[in-house]
């Protein structure tokens, strides 16, 4: 068993945060489960970790590595690969994780025989695809599950991308000439989504991480070739009022992180300013318009529960791109969007939102939990990835909403595990069961879910309109679309358990069941990048709190 997933192991110790002097305690709510029963438990954590605390603890932990001969290589590699931009103040490279974690990854890969860690196994899965469930489309085609050093059928750069709702491409003429044909062929009707996100976006991340796991520059060149192709080719990206902002967010979140991880290479340095210009010119306006003008317009017009996975995706992209471009304004805009989105998305089960329309909500529910679980994982995964990049820069998004992401991880982990083990879901929920869990809809209608109202309603299949007064108010929360996706679980666990000492038994069991994380669309590879790193790269540095002055502790 992994040491960090062993509940009774030596890693499961009480953290010394020097309460009352350097950090203030906060009691945060996390649901705990016993069969189908649940209750809210309060755990003690730091209210927030400011930049001075984060930096001093991390630097102290890395310095302590020098005192341990076997681990001094991590410190030396960190010193060689890390840098801080004098203008922006950003630490580099910070893609999916920071330079300390990347240095630890290289050390663990080089010492896979002598050092028992999850990274070598996760690297094997990344390169070979062994055990990764393929995402198979009708007709039998699936994106590659491995990370080939050669033979990848891309890049699939497109001059014009016009993605409608559902991922459909508005004009088949936009599809790239080398779009996978053969037998089976990639679905032509969604070529923009597949090309930018499910092929080139995710492959750029996989190739960049493969470079760090193997030190083989062929992987780095593969990633850079993909990013360069889109930089040189793509001139228009949409559709603005349909799926364009989301698709742009997914792709930028991948490619910006990949380029950031490779920024020390000469080819990456030459590409970086051109990619920054491409994103600022073509992609960022699409995302920014949705995150500001369209979102605020909806709220002004009375829309409810507006913030969802689109917003956390765009926040993830903005934060990662801001770091890559050393653009503090773009980064801060991403931080603000993330704070607003996380707080609103995870408001359920707390305060005035504990009971809504007579239905008890559990802390950890998000606005999309009752829509379906996989879209909820989209939203949570992007929020967790954004939080990790921000944390590496000294900004604590993990604490937003009372550390609400920790509660969300526990609840959604319990639901996914219950589904896998064919158990009943937590009290108050019921399996949708392909619609059989719902009461029968009246003739000529079907039930659909309204995110704004958080209710199922009758939809007339002839008039294509909602039936007036047809809301389903039976007090039951139906669950559908339940599946595990590699969406930030390892990053969140490494922070909340590894850095803060929180108890997350459902998340621990989830990782015991499904890890290592693969990469899918815009998320994943947390096992390779971060698993069980906090005990070396954070916990030893907590002694630095003893040397900090009160002013340093309280600085923003």
Automatic annotation (TrEMBL):
This is Alginate lyase domain-containing protein. Gene3D superfamilies: Chondroitin AC/alginate lyase. It comes from Tetradesmus obliquus (Green alga). Keywords: Lyase, Signal. The keyword Signal applies. The keyword Transferase does not apply. InterPro entries: Alginate_lyase_dom (IPR008397), Chondroitin_lyas (IPR008929). Residues 169-417 form the Alginate lyase domain.
